[in-house]
Amino acid sequence: MPAVPTHAPSASLTHRLCVAPMLDWTDRHCRYFHRLLAPSACLYSEMITTGALLHGQPARQLAFSPAEKPVALQLGGSDPEALAACARLGEQWGYDEINLNVGCPSDRVQQGRFGACLMKEPGLVADCLRAMNEAVHVPVTIKTRIGVDDMESYEYLRDFVQQCQHAGCSTLILHARKAWLNGLSPKQNRTVPPLKYDYAYRLKADFPQLEVVLNGGIDSVAAASGHLQQTDGVMIGRAAWNNPWLLAELQNALFPDGPPAPALRDEVLEYYGRYCQEQLARGTPLNWLIRPILGLYHGLPGNRLWKNHLVSQAPRRPDDVTILDEARQLIPIAPGTV
Ligand SMILES: Cc1cc2nc3c(=O)[nH]c(=O)nc-3n(C[C@H](O)[C@H](O)[C@H](O)COP(=O)(O)O)c2cc1C
Question: Is the pTM of this model over 0.90?
Answer without folding.
Answer: yes
